[in-house]
TrEMBL record:
Keywords of this entry: Kinase, Transferase
Family: Belongs to the FGGY kinase family.
Signal peptide: none
Residues annotated as domain Carbohydrate kinase FGGY N-terminal: 9-281
Entry protein name: FGGY carbohydrate kinase domain-containing protein
UniProt record, GO biological process: pentose metabolic process
Carbohydrate kinase FGGY C-terminal domain span: 307-517
One Pfam family here: FGGY_C
GO cellular-component term (any): cytoplasm
Listed GO MF terms: D-ribulokinase activity
Length: 575
């Protein structure tokens, strides 16, 4: 099939940790249908791996299924956009997978974003105090790509020798789709230490083009032991970069189009990391009643908003017109989400994953899961209802107060922001021998609240260092949990706005395609046209609720301080 410009539907593809999803949107940003296909994943200790071959097959399956569900053909799709986790893909000169696994299994050529094998390498890289680190909150996380690359070089010599391209997953997807190896400013700036602002005087969204990569720091790569990547003008990690949404190559190649069930030549936009696509898909979803003045019509309006992309982990995305350096928070990243604005990115490495871990491993979880299934509701909705019943039964002043004896530090996978401590651990205070359904409900509530306290810590920290956040927008799987969102509003004290379309990451990806097809002049124009507000959760006006959460927040902060103290005491004892 050949592409025709009369097509009017936008396809967004999102590759998450557990599945690949495809969504089809109309010209108003309304989701028609979506479909998903599961992904294989290997977990061995700190090593978490996937297969790019498996991922592409899942992308094709999800795309074909979404088109079938929407009753549309490939000729109806006007553009394609990709978003994905910031996982690391290794391929050879012939684009075949190159193993990144101790097992030597060639299928396993993707180091998943949450893989923490490179903690020691990250610490070593950070010890050099390179100037590029100031644009990553002062320190690289083991979840970023340079530490992972260094780990492969030091541990898998053969793989290092034969790898021809190292790519962020979303960039690999656009490369697989178009044959164009241009990298996104989003991935390179956020995860590879690329200094996007090197292009500030050269490019603007209204006159976008692929640019020779001039933002790499040779000294940094040589200093950390990866000087061989400088060869060939960084050919292995990115010789050309572009704004998100920039049209790549000649659109879909014939091979990719056939595999996806679409038309050859369909425009494809430069990609975004999944969380950043969520930001694009939601940040303009503000009700008109929340617009305060004419000033709100311009870029300044965006700078008062923070987007929470809540899934397995949570990313906290905020933009500013000027660069703001915030210790322990990633960025400032120029044009990494909204072109020509500086992105600040906080995060919590385990949120949805933490709730799943604590709830699903509880002794009563199988019983509750069966009960929830019989009522055709989620396990978490059942727990929410249990908490409401408990509050009524004991005449609690409000549901949140049920957690008064249980306090949680949610750093079960380290602390990404704002203390940037990958060695931080989770803590629970207040456990008893009780293992009942009610005990699980309280543990769930306490954990949910602890995640919100973590977000409050990030927001307060960012505002103390120069941001002006006063409104939150939320998307992702956890945003479908009304208790989760209401607790965030109550704990942080800001309204939390949900978008009309809950699949904001898919919409963000679709927006990239719409821009690449020249349906909009800029990404901002597309955001304004395709974003739309939904429900708004306002903070409780009960002063007792605020007083309660202020007290719990002080305990939350103290838990980490105690952990650091305990760590020091044990270190002294063993030293």
């Amino acid at each position: 099939m050949a592409f025709t410009s009369s097509a009017s539907l936008y396809l967004g593809i999102d590759v998450g940790t557990g599945s690949a999803r495809a969504g089809i949107f109309d010209e108003h940003g309304k989701l028609l249908k979506s479909a998903s296909s599961p992904l294989q994943i290997w977990k061995e200790g700190n090593c978490i791996e996937q297969s790019s071959t498996d991922i592409w097959l899942a992308v094709c399956a999800a795309t074909r299924a979404a088109c079938q569900l929407a009753n549309v053909s490939g000729e109806d799709i006007s553009s394609v956009g990709f978003a994905a986790t910031c996982s690391l893909v290794a391929v050879g000169e012939d684009d075949s997978p190159v193993t990144v696994s101790w097992s030597g299994d060639a299928r396993r050529n993707v180091i998943v974003w949450m893989d923490h094998r490179a903690v020691e390498q990250a610490e070593r890289i950070n010890s050099y105090n390179s100037p590029v680190l100031q644009y990553a909150g002062g320190a690289l996380s083991p979840e970023m790509q340079p530490p992972k690359l260094l780990w492969v070089k030091e541990n898998l010599n053969e793989s290092w020798a034969v790898a021809f391209r190292w790519m962020d997953l979303s960039d690999w997807l656009t490369y697989r789709a178009t044959g164009d190896d241009t990298r996104s400013l989003c991935t390179t700036v956020c995860k590879w230490t690329y200094l996007g602002h090197a292009h500030m005087q050269q490019m603007s969204m209204k006159n976008t083009k692929a640019m020779d990569a001039c933002g790499w720091d040779d000294v940094f790569w040589q200093e950390i032991g990866l000087g061989d990547l400088v060869e060939g003008h960084y050919a292995k990690i990115g010789r050309s970069v572009a704004f998100p949404g920039h049209p790549l190559g000649a659109g879909l190649t014939g091979t990719a189009a056939q595999e996806l069930g679409l038309c050859e030549g369909t425009p494809v936009g430069a990609s975004l990391i999944d969380a950043h696509a969520g930001g694009i898909g939601v940040i303009e979803s503000v009700p008109s009643s929340n617009i305060k003045s004419q000033e709100e019509e311009n870029m300044e309006a965006l700078c008062h908003r923070m987007v929470l992309v809540c899934g397995t982990s949570t990313c906290h995305m905020a933009v500013a017109q000027n660069k703001v350096f915030i210790p322990g928070v990633w960025g400032p990243f120029w044009s990494a989400m909204v072109p020509e604005l500086w992105l600040t990115e906080g995060g919590q490495s385990a949120t949805g994953a933490l709730l799943d871990h604590l709830v699903e491993n509880h002794v009563v979880a199988p019983l509750l899961a069966n009960r929830a299934a019989s009522q055709n509701i989620s396990l978490y909705e059942l727990l929410n209802r249990t908490l409401e019943s408990m509050a009524l039964e004991i005449k609690a002043p409000f549901v949140a107060s049920l957690s008064k004896d249980v306090h949680v530090l949610p750093d079960f996978h380290g602390n990404r922001s704002p203390v940037a401590d990958p060695s931080a651990k989770g803590m629970i205070s207040g456990l008893t021998l009780d293992s009942s359904e009610k005990q699980l409900a309280v543990l769930y509530l306490s954990t949910l609240q602890s995640i919100a306290y973590g977000t409050r810590h990030i927001v307060e920290h960012c505002n103390a260092h120069g941001l002006k956040i006063d409104t939150l927008l939320a998307c992702g799987g956890l945003s479908k949990n009304s208790l989760y969102i209401q607790e965030h509003a109550d704990i942080i004290g800001f309204p939390v706005i949900l978008p009309r379309e809950r699949e904001s990451v898919l919409l963000g990806a679709a927006i990239l395609g719409a821009v690449s097809a020249k349906n909009y002049n800029t990404l901002q124009d597309a955001m304004k046209a395709l974003n739309a507000p939904g429900q708004v959760f306002y903070p409780s006006q009960d002063p007792k609720v605020k007083k309660y959460h202020d007290a719990k927040y002080r305990i939350f902060r103290a838990l980490y301080e105690q952990q650091v103290s305990f760590r020091s005491m044990i270190s002294d004892a063993l030293g």
